[in-house]
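Please discuss these two lines.
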Amino acid sequence: MQETLNKIKDLVESNKVVLFMKGDAKFPLCGFSGRAAKILSLCGVKDFVTVNILEDDEIRQGIKEYSEWPTIPQLYVNGEFIGGSDIMAEMYQSGELQDLLQS
């Protein structure tokens, strides 16, 4: 598991925006993941990394341990865990997410 956590840490720290989700931005495989990808698109984010947790069970379990957050999707910006689609939606509506993504 430590190897998986290190892999997740490398992904999160080496990319500005990372979304752990079911599916990918072009073909989300659940409504919450689709909503999260759409919110990033609405914020003008064109270049972000998606990690399909359905392709790797170790990542699927490891990301929950890494973030101490039980659900998917999970958004990371500048190495920091932001939250899932509900938190993203709240931050988008307040403008906080756009500010964070532009910094």
Summary: The two ends are 33 Å apart (CA to CA). The helical segments are 2-14, 31-42, 57-67, 85-94, 96-102.
